[in-house]
Each structure stands twice: as structure tokens, then as C-alpha cells.
Amino acid sequence: MSQPAPMITKDGRFAYEAAGDPNATPLIFLHGIGGAARAWRRQLATFGNRFHAIAWDMPGYGGSAPLASVSIPALADALQQFIAQIGAESPILVGHSIGGMIVQKWLVQSPKLARAIVLAQTSPAFGKADGDWQKSFISARLGPLDHGETMKSLAPSLVKELVGDDPDPKGLELASECMASVPEASYRAMMLALIGFDQRSTLKDISVTTLLLSGSRDNNAPAPMMAKTASYIPSAEYVELAGAGHLANLEQPDAFDRALGGFLDAVTARHG
Predict the structure, then answer these.
(1) The domain containing residue 195 runs over which residues?
(2) Which residues form the AB hydrolase-1 domain (predicted)?
């Protein structure tokens, strides 16, 4: 049976896609550096029958206005403005990669506003600007752009590096389309915003019900690191998806949705 298309909306500074009853519990999806609101269309279709499922275009992506100065704290402020703008009360937040970093930073300033959170294939820290791993990570991703490549030309190889075993072909295609459409200025700014991010000291203060969702083949947010992160969060559950790389919701949409759905069932039972 075909799923209804999501509603694509531009509201002030933010563009987003949504599905479901606006009066239902808000379920907000936050994409990664190479993503877009449309990367979550499968999840909007899956969960729009139970929730008001919403996926934003991060500032500087799609129809959302860029920030004057990009940083994780500024993105967390933008998230709070977005939540207020759409009138989302007690939302459940699903943050992938840098989206999960934004959620962690947002929780520090708004610790009681979320009903629950999902940290999907993300990290509590990126590290120091002068760290060898960090420097090589940034160089590998920005170097080709410095030498004349474009996001469109780089997209297939960038996505191939991110995925694990036997990714869903349609998900792979959508991942490449999203990556190719990221404005170069936004991609550069978001990569540099990672430097120095470190919320490890605040993990113990996360007081909302939390799911950490990892992929066993994810090299950007390795599963052992995510499992360790879960051990520092008081009410965290940890789920690892076998064979998934860094883009699990696109690579293994059925497995991702089952894991997320099970968590949402538990949250709903607990909170009503």
C-alpha cells in the first residue's frame, strides 16, 4: 500500500517535512552533515500513523536559512527556536550523527523539555582541533573540495565510505541524492563545527529516557564507543544493528524502524 507523501513546509527560518496528526506526540528527526529532511521520509511514513513525525532541514540545508556563525551551541539554539516555532510540546527527538550532537547540547539548556531522545550513530565528543585523528578526518572530507571537486561529484564515494553490508538500494540512492544537494558552504561549516565538541561530562545529567542506536559496521561512530556512552547515561538503552554502517535508517530501514518502534512503544507505555 502506498504511503501518503509528507507535507513539505517552510515556516519562517526553517523548512521541514511532516506526516501525521499535528495534535499527536511530536517525533522530531534531525539529520546528519550529509543528510536532509527527506532522508527521513521512510520513518515519517512508518511513524506518522502514531505520532506527528517531523524532519527538519538543518540550518543551511534545503529551505532552511543558514546561521550567521555555525557551531553546535548555535545549532542547539536553532533547534529550540524550531521546536517553539512549530509548537512541539514534550517532543521525542531522534538525532543522527551531528543531529545527535545537537540534541546533546540542547539537553544541557533544556533538560526537561523532551519526552525521550534517541541518539543514533553519534558521539558525545569529537575532540581537539590539533588532534591527529580530527585533523585527518577534516582533511579527508574538505581536501577534495579544496582541489576542485564538488558535493555532487563526491557524493557517491562519500556515501560508499559510510555504509555497511548490503545497504538497501533505494536508501543508498537517496543518501547520495541528499549528499549531492548539500551546499558546499554548509558542509564545510558543519565539518568545522565538530571540532572541540565534547559533552562527555554531561552524559550523567541526561534525565530523560534515552535510546542509543549504533551500527556494527559504523566507522564514524563505532559501536563499542556508543555502548560505552550508554553506560554513562542513567536511563539509557543500547541497541546495535548488525551489518549497518553510519546511515542505518537508509541502509536498513526495516531494522532501524523496528528498533525505534520498540523504544517508542516503551516510552508511550511509560508516559502515555
Answers:
(1) 7-271
(2) 27-257
Q: What grid cell was written down for 42? A: 521512510
User: Is 199 part of a structural domain of the chain?
Assistant: yes
CATH number at 184 reads: 3.40.50.1820
User: For residues 162 and 219, what is the distance between their CA atoms, to the nearest angstrom?
Assistant: 8
Spatial strand order of the sheet with 236-241 comes to: 7-11, 14-19, 52-56, 26-30, 92-96, 116-120, 209-215, 236-241
Number of structural domains, the chain?
A: 1
| pLDDT reported for residue 213 | 98
Residue with the three cell numbers 531522534:
94
CA distance 188 to 229: 27
- In this predicted model, what pLDDT tens digit does every residue of 169-193 receive, in sequence order? 999 999 999 999 999 999 999 999 9
- Which residue ranges of the chain lie beneath pLDDT 70? 1-5, 11, 128-129, 272
Check if the beta carbon of residue 213 is closer than 8 Å to that of residue 118. yes
Backbone dihedral angles phi then psi of residue 143, each to the nearest 5 degrees: -55, -50
> ∠ CA 36-186-154 to the nearest 5 degrees?
75
**Prediction pTM value:** 0.95
